[in-house]
Amino acid sequence: MSNSPAAPPSSRPPRSRRLLTVSAVAVPVLLLAGGIGYGVAGRGGGDGGGTGGDDAKAAPVRTSAAPSPSPSPRGPLSGKVVVLDPGHNVRNRLHTADINRQVDVGNGRKECDTTGTETNAGYPEAEFTLDVVRRARKLLRAQGAEVRLTHDGDREFGPCVDERAEIGNEAEADAAVSVHADGAPAGARGFHVIMPGAVHAGKADTRAITAPSHDLGTRLAASFAKATDTSPATYINGGTGLDTRSDLGGLNLSRVPKVFLECGNMRDTRDAGLLTSARWRERAARGIAAGVAAYLTEDAGEKS
Questions:
Q1: pLDDT at position 54, please?
Q2: What is the mean pLDDT of residues 67-85?
């Protein structure tokens, strides 16, 4: 991306309507930051929890992963591309030097990735996010969407936060969601959605996606609350369930509408009881699919 000033953004960025065949991004989706250890416990960390570190060796961004199955040929989301980003990777803990490497996120440098959080009983955030995303992929594909994942449990670690953003950019996604679970103190409960703040620094320029990302985030929060029968986090932004941040590489480097979803607090016993339930994870996936569909069909209506 060019560092020169961009023209004033429109209300929505240009969208490609074709079904893409991008060899550099044959990826099977997602959007958001605590257990990542975000929320109260880890506001200063990277796009996930864990410790930081620097590595003088930079590595090129790769945007390849296992391909997603072909979408259904017909449905209300036909022609739409959705990128789902399962936060973290269960193998990150075996590759601390790799995930601690610093990457450029436009207005600073952050860890390539982090290990994420876990419940008190040891259920990893990365295992939770991958399961929910796979369920959401199935639901979105049933509506005709082309769904791509940033990884499908097929990577030794990561991908790094800059690569996660680039996968959505290369796919020219109509919507991208990064799925997480928070690592806030016990007693803090609920979900929240993180949306990109306006960043124009280095290779980051979110000015064109802040408004559509807010729309996506608002619809996602409403659908998630309804599907899961849970409430917005009481410990984030006054209980609105919506938060805006400019320190997350996965959002800063995105050129497509994107949000992070923190599905609940893994460090709280009651929330952990939900997150570890397969039945509840299916409800979470339904909430994600419904929120994305609401955003995409509303957008289609505006364009018709």
A1: 30
A2: 80
Question: To the nearest whole percent, how much of the chain has pLDDT over 90?
Answer: 73
The per-residue pLDDT for 107 is 97
Roughly what angle, to the nearest 10 degrees, separates helices 278-303 and 210-228?
Answer: 140
d(CA 142, CA 139): 5
Percent of the chain with pLDDT over 70: 74
CB 21 within 8 A of CB 6: no
Is 163's pLDDT higher than 70?
A: yes
- What pLDDT is stored for residue 72 in this prediction? 55
**pLDDT: which is higher, 48 or 181:** 181
Whether residue 116 contacts residue 87, with contact meaning beta carbons closer than 8 Å, is answered with yes
Q: Is the pLDDT of residue 239 over 50?
A: yes
d(CA 138, CA 289): 9
**d(C-alpha 108, C-alpha 111), whole Å:** 10
Residue 125 annotated to the active site: no
CA angle 66, 68, 74 (to 5 degrees): 170
Q: How far apart are CA 276 and CA 293, in angstroms?
A: 25
Strands 192-196 and 258-265, bridge-based pairing:
antiparallel
Distance between alpha carbon 229 and the CA centroid of its chain, in Å? 21
d(CA 253, CA 204): 5
Written as one letter, the residue type at 133 is V
Confirm if 262 and 38 have CB atoms less than 8 A apart: yes
> In a 10 Å sphere around its CB, with 0-12 CB exposed, 13-18 middle and 19+ buried, how is residue 97 labelled?
exposed
Tokens representing 11 are 């209300």
Q: What amino acid is encoded at 247 in this protein? A: D
pTM of the model: 0.79
Q: Which residues contact 288 (CB under 8 A, 6 or more apart)?
A: 84, 132, 136, 177, 179, 220, 223, 224, 261
DSSP 267-279: TSHHHHHHHT-HH
Among residues 146, 163, 262, 282, the one annotated as catalytic is 262
